[in-house]
Amino acid sequence: xxxxxxxxxxxxxxxxxxxxxxxxxxxxxxxxxxxxxxxxxxxxxxxxxxxxxxxxxxxxxxxxxxxxxxxxxxxxxxxxxxxxxxxxxxxxxxxxxxxxxxxxxxxxxxxxxxxxxxxxxxxxxxxxxxxxxxxxxxxxxxxxxxxxxxxxxxxxxxxxxxxxxxxxxxxxxxxxxxxxxxxxxxxxxxxxxxxxxxxxxxxxxxxxxxxxxxxxxxxxxxxxxxxxxxxxxxxxxxxxxxxxxxxxxxxxxxxxxxxxxxxxxxxxxxxxxxxxxxxxxxxxxxxxxxxxxxxxxxxxxxxxxxxxxxxxxxxxxxxxxxxxxxxxxxxxxxxxxxxxxxxxxxxxxxxxxxxxxxxxxxxxxxxxxxxxxxxxxxxxxxxxxxxxxxxxxxxxxxxxxxxxxxxxxxxxxxxxxxxxxxxxx
Length: 425
Fold this sequence. Notes:
Elements: E1 4-6, E2 15-17, H1 19-50, H2 56-84, H3 86-100, H4 102-110, H5 113-127, H6 130-140, H7 147-175, H8 178-198, H9 218-223, H10 227-260, H11 265-271, H12 274-288, H13 296-315, H14 319-346, H15 355-375, H16 383-408
Antiparallel strand pairs: 1-2
Helix pairs in contact: 1-5, 1-6, 1-7, 1-8, 1-10, 2-3, 2-5, 2-6, 2-10, 2-15, 3-5, 3-6, 3-8, 4-5, 4-8, 7-8, 7-11, 7-12, 10-13, 10-14, 10-15, 10-16, 12-14, 13-14, 13-16, 15-16
């Protein structure tokens, strides 16, 4: 096994770091932060519905509130990161998150929707700048692991934490108390601070050596900079943005869907986590099976499956649909996200997107989708909200399809594959 020298190669007391030693603390901090924020946020949705009987529109406005703050914080996060460095920023955001979670305890005590809104806003303000810091720490730490493998493990890390937090929210509330949900989120955030402060590599080592890049395959090289390659990259980014319109509208509504189906809150969060498990399976499948690469039909198929699952879950009051629709939703979301990641890496020589801008675009989707759904119909009406979301997503899907047909008219270059769309005319 190859080792890296920490503290400078000329220092006789320098420690030898393996790839695992360099990277695993960042992955652990990522997992803990993801678990903390999803546990607290999911706790807000389910407590608001099951204990305070909040309407579906109110649940959606929680997400709009968080998304607006998320967008602003993401845009500022990159600038803050350049001045503070990854370690200081992650310590600050983790400590902030740990304290902010205590607002959830007060919200439960006083049964206050206002405090729940405050918690969602401050939580997004605190945790959002940490995501670009974690992404850059993982990709810029000196290790032999390929960039694509690092990113794949990063996505598996947050998606597993996301699923686990969805799963245990109601179980913690039932076995312990609702305040325990928010205390548990705060403890997880505090543990991430300990991981960064005492276990992660020194700040001076981050970026000290270039990350081990993936080789450029002939197919990638032939598409980089071409109209076809650029169009495919833009399609992947737009489809991922639209996917978050769907997912971040479904997450708060899930509390209402399980309530409508007759589940207690202890059962409800477990049932409502099925799509998170399906997304993990989808990520693993996309990692090992590469037949979807450069196949626009797979991209469009995944996106439109996500649209169908979203509308179906909202419009059809059935336990079978609640379970089956979540499976489709999770698998489709994984395919869309994997495409965005893959094309960003391989069609731009691995440069990818600016982390802060990428997160801000996700925030925009988080505001637009839930806001339109909240305004559609009355506060308690679900069908108009599902239709409104479906219209937004189908309009976006029309743009994606048009982009795909336009790219299909361009003659392939060299080793570039066909995009598998029928040619018009």
